[in-house]
Amino acid sequence: MTSALLCIHRPQTAPTLAADLSSAGISVLATLEDCSKLVQAVVLHAPDVVICDVPLPTSAWFQAWQTLGQTLPCPTLVFTQDADATHIAQAVECGVHVYVVHGYGANRLRSLIHLAQARHQKAQQQRQAFDAMATRFEERKAVDRAKGILMRAQSLSDDDAFRTLRTAAMNSNQRMGQLSQHIIQSAHFAEGLNRAGQLRMLSQRLVKLHLLQAAGVQVEHHAALLQESVQWVDSNFALLRKNLSMPTYGDLLEQVAHTWEQLKTALATGQTSAVQDSAEALLLGAERLTSSLEGSGAAAPLQVLNLAGRQRMLSQRFAKYALLAAEADMRTVQQEFEAALTYLNGLPLSTPDIQAALAAAGVAWLQMVAAAKEAQRLPAAQRSARLEALATGSETLLGLFEQLSVHYERSMQMLMGEA
Known about the structure:
Layout: E1 3-8, H1 17-23, E2 27-32, H2 38-45, E3 49-53, H3 59-71, E4 76-80, H4 85-94, E5 98-101, H5 109-154, H6 158-171, H7 176-214, H8 219-243, H9 246-269, H10 272-294, H11 299-323, H12 327-345, H13 352-377, H14 384-410, H15 412-416
Parallel strand pairs: 1-2, 1-3, 3-4, 4-5
């Protein structure tokens, strides 16, 4: 038996509607007089059809029908005395399937209900077809974007990138669009994590360059590198503000940005203690941001990228402590750096480029540590050459781990979300 929710707004257009529905074999589940509860009543009673007797519909009724059509579409039949063409068009736009003006008749009830149901079914089919087409279109756009990411990351041709996507989708039992969305998201998080990790490194590099200038070591060269680092930080903040979700990460990012402004002020005044304090605050804020980003994506690959990126910071931090002759802090950083280097060397997540960069980083690290220890043993007057070697070594390590971070960021394991 077909069930109906009856909505009657006095005075009635069809005074015998309830009785006629019953005679036609239509079960009236409930009767409403207030359109504000239409959607709730449909949710509660789940009728096969909604039948409204509304002589002159108000804007509240049109809004109720529109809300019903958007949230819980249901065959809707309206009897009315309102012949206004604008209102007829508005009713159709709001999701009313049959709008009967001065045309009520008991013998036509079942036919009108069938018409409302048929039009509802057709509308649902059209909506599903449109949604499917929109989904295919969005997936095609995602596939194109994912192909672009793979082409840039792996130096693949368009055809090779497509074949790579298709093979990976088959192996992981996913649609290509679904996998493409995952790749886009992975690349998005990886870039954000890499940029935030650079802020950690730059906090220590700036202190190192400030101390090298204060020690009179290649003053002009290191002044230029310091200015370059300031611009680097500013560009990273611009990109992070553009790419990160402000509701999700905005508070963390703006805390780091506020600390950065304090560090810039300290660098301008040249006060070493203020520079060091602000740089440590920037490091802590950037650590919080990178940890949050790492936890938001595919855990294992982002963990590796974060660890490789952190090595950049530790190379600068070690050089900073060597310039400050802080031997205990140097030892702590050395232990952290070497433990991470051992871990990275043992990972299966590797390519010939990654292996070569890790090997070169191991050599450069030993050379920098040797230069730092020798500088500690020499008298101040003879220390300049060793400090230059220390500075050069820290920049070499920075470059190598910058390359490694890019390799990890663009690796297939990272983009596919595999450990």
